Amino acid sequence: MYSKKLVENIENELEALKGAGKFKVERELEGAQGAEVNIAGKKVLMFASNNYLGLANHPEIIKASKEAVDKYGFGLSSVRFIAGTETIHKTLEKKLAEFLGTEDAILYSTNFMANLGFFATMTNEAFGDETSHLDAIYSDELNHASIIDAFKLCKKENVVKRIYPHGDIPTLEQMLEEDKSKNYRFKIIVTDGVFSMEGYLANLPEIKKLAEKYEALLFVDDAHAVGVLGKTGAGTPEYYDLHGKIDILSGTFGKALGGAIGGYIAGKAEIVELLRQKSRTYLFSNSLPPSVVMASIKALDLLKEELELLNKVIENSEYFREEVKKLGFNVLEGNHPIVPVMLSDAGLTQKVSRKLLDNGLYVVGLWFPVVPEGAARLRFQISAAHTKGQIDQAIEIMREVGKEMKII
Ligand SMILES: Cc1ncc(COP(=O)(O)O)c(C=O)c1O
């Protein structure tokens, strides 16, 4: 029963979230996502979305999605294996695999679902004549929430989970060395390709070497890198000259590649087939709508046709990073369009982000517990859609607010 006591407890929980600075306020956009957006009747510069290539509102993406609605309708009212697979789903999977240099790929409703589906299937299932098995997962402590939650779906009796400190290759190696004699069925090393709070890249070359040395599978969640890094936008593996050499990749269509929704796993053909047959977040959840599928195909085509978008997002990011540094702000070094400006203090960060918005610049402030205590920051995200004029405008707003708040 929904008792008075329960209501009270829920209300207390919400109050506690507010008290701890964890309560999230959803700001309402009034119109399309883009370099500029409307909020509360006012135009502001958007520096907080994952719209890295500006495809969220690209005319070709909109056209593809409208054509899909005309041709295939709105929804498919089915999961993939019953009545929810159109030829275009297969086309997108094939194109994705080609683009990422993998043998095959499988679509999920989101990257979150893809990660849940992969780990639960790979570790809980017994294959062939196996009667029992034990696997091991080695995970960077800052991996995305979807990876952490994926582990919760892995049964304790089937999997040993080991968390290594962020980016700590020697500790990862030590763990693998300790486990050498343990006869695990699989060892899986899992890392984000790009860590979204800092824009830092995983050290894939070193992690790959360890995966080879200790015969582990390497899983890279490249959500923030596909459509951003590498000479064709194929992500961190391509950036590091490891294109086609990572065992399993997961990613999203919800960021650079159109920004709507949709995720995937790409990798070895038999793993992809296993997921198609056994993965519950794939089997028992609806197939992606045609408009999203056609727009995602278009997003992959646009990456090839408009390579300048990739150059532009990197160029814009470098320019922004350098100019903000010149103003005297403490900026984390990096080569990704995530540009964190460190303010340290949570209260100050809240005030500054509010002031920036009042002045026409939308940027997200992050503080404990989302980032470590004392490491509060503004997280800027740069897009190919930003013009130089808009970036200059953002920098000018940073200068004014920075001076007013005595940060610079
Ligand atoms: C590393 C990483 N993995 C997975 C996700 C989830 O992606 P999706 O929105 O497609 O579920 C995100 C998005 O925040 C992410 O940053």
Automatic annotation (TrEMBL):
Spell out the Gene3D superfamilies in the cross-references: Aspartate Aminotransferase, domain 1, Type I PLP-dependent aspartate aminotransferase-like (Major domain)
Per UniProt, the keywords (alphabetical) are: Acyltransferase, Ligase, Pyridoxal phosphate, Transferase
Protein family (similarity comment): Belongs to the class-II pyridoxal-phosphate-dependent aminotransferase family.
Name any cofactors this protein relies on.
Answer: pyridoxal 5'-phosphate
Please verify whether the record's keywords include Flavoprotein: no
Task: Output the CDD domains linked to this UniProt entry.
Answer: KBL_like (cd06454)
The record's annotation in SUPFAM superfamilies points to:
PLP-dependent transferases (SSF53383)
Pfam families found in the cross-reference section:
Aminotran_1_2
Q: What is the lineage of its organism?
A: Bacteria, Candidatus Nomuraibacteriota
Query: Which GO BP terms, alphabetically?
Result: L-threonine catabolic process
On the tree of life, the source organism's domain of life is: Bacteria
Which residues are in the Aminotransferase class I/classII large domain?
43-396
Report if keyword RNA-binding is assigned: no
Q: Which GO terms describe its molecular function?
A: glycine C-acetyltransferase activity; ligase activity; pyridoxal phosphate binding
- What this protein is called in its record is 2-amino-3-ketobutyrate coenzyme A ligase
